[in-house]
Specification:
19% strand; 11 helices; disordered C terminus; alpha/beta; four-stranded parallel sheet
Length: 386
């Protein structure tokens, strides 16, 4: 039996002393996160099945890109022997066996079995038949629930850590995520919220009850989908609605290799967005599509980019100096935002359709710019995302 227990304490101090300069923030309350890895372990998955992992898995297959991204963030990519076709954007992932194909993803059951995994992490978009076949072959399969909020992304990260024996790394990752969320939330607190649209034009966008929508909110934006009077997680917006709302910022997800172009070039010539304040003022926020559309740790990167774009002065004042206190020492660091320069295929820009937010009452797009410019946000949809 293996037991690894960690207690991760987060203390974020943002210039909270009386001598702090103007614009300093009060520090969030200290948070402690405890994760325990113990095998055998039994956890109930999204389908209601009690899944037992007998021993720490040394060979893991990820059937969705967010699970793969999470393992990479843990530094546990060496355990991953199989990935989905949408997970190959991760550094070194192209060396793994690709065990899915098509859109939505279909699993090659035979390939997965041949890899002899100790654990398969599956999204809720994978068919019941595939899961049944794998389980009948003696493969341990855990179906991950869809992530409808930033909190659920954090919970999913913790779950993957516990299932794979990576509790220390999961605790560190969650701590970093929560620290970033708290920092961004504090930085924009009290600021006016500009109207924001996620997407390149009329089509599907993320509602407020999605992890993407929450990232916009935390960054200090007002997601115009909240005014669409729709109960769907990913409602379809009309040109008329977008024109009426006149967003002040537009957030566009782009494949990593297409980052760096003129931001307005990502907006199609016939898009209603070109008639909005956002376009006229050049307020197009371009983010890595693999990060914003997958419910995984890197969601905090586009969230930070949005906060910097929506509230540049407040964000700069609040994050000029971040003092992080650990058990042994106190260091002062400058907060910066980086973008991964990994490569992906055009198909991978639609990963979110196989791996993202989930809703029983809404379709789920995962659309970036596959060839530089796209006509509308999303042609292919899935009923649920994980």
């Amino acid at each position: 039996m293996r037991r690894s227990t960690i207690a991760v304490g987060i203390v974020l101090l943002l210039l909270a002393s009386a001598a702090a300069p103007a614009g300093a923030l009060a520090a969030p309350a200290a948070q402690e996160e405890t994760l325990t890895c113990e095998f055998p372990t039994t956890m109930t998955d999204a389908s209601g099945a009690d899944v037992t992992v007998d021993a720490e898995p040394e060979r893991v297959v990820t059937l969705n890109p967010s699970a793969a991204q999470t393992m990479w963030e843990f530094g546990a990519e060496d355990k991953v022997v199989g990935v989905s076709q949408f997970g190959t954007y991760l550094e070194g992932a192209s060396d793994r066996e690709v065990v899915t194909s098509g859109y939505p993803s279909q699993v090659s059951v035979e390939q997965v079995i041949s890899l002899e995994p100790g654990l398969v992490l599956a999204p809720n978009t994978i068919s019941n038949d595939s899961v049944t076949q794998l389980r009948d072959a003696g493969i341990t399969v855990y179906r991950l629930p869809f992530a409808s909020s930033l909190d659920s992304v954090i919970e999913k990260t913790e779950t993957i850590g516990q299932l794979t024996g990576e509790c220390d790394a999961a605790g560190d990752t969650v701590s970093e995520m929560q620290t970033t969320i708290d920092t961004v939330r504090g930085a924009v607190d009290g600021e006016d919220e500009p109207r924001v649209l996620w997407g390149t034009g009329a089509g599907y966008s993320a509602g407020p009850n999605t992890f993407i929508g929450q990232a916009i909110d935390v960054a200090g934006g007002h997601n115009i989908v909240a005014d669409a009077n729709s109960s769907r997680a990913y409602p379809q917006l009309s040109e008329e609605f977008i024109a009426e709302q006149d967003p002040e910022f537009v957030v566009v997800g782009v494949a990593p290799e297409q980052l760096g172009n003129e931001p307005t070039s990502y907006i199609p010539e016939d898009s209603v967005v070109r008639n909005t304040t956002a376009f006229e003022e050049g307020n197009i926020v371009v983010v890595d599509n693999n990060h914003i559309s997958q419910p995984a740790p890197r969601i905090v990167e586009p969230m930070t980019q949005m906060a910097e774009a929506f509230h540049p002065e407040a964000y700069a004042d609040a994050t000029a100096t971040t003092t992080t206190t650990t058990a042994d020492s106190t260091t002062t660091t400058t907060t910066t935002t980086t973008t991964e320069s990994s490569t992906t295929t055009a198909a991978a820009t639609t990963t979110a359709a196989d791996d993202g937010d989930g809703s029983s009452n809404g379709s789920a797009p995962g659309f970036g710019v596959a060839t530089g410019v796209v006509a509308v946000l999303g042609a292919a949809l899935l009923a649920r995302r994980t």
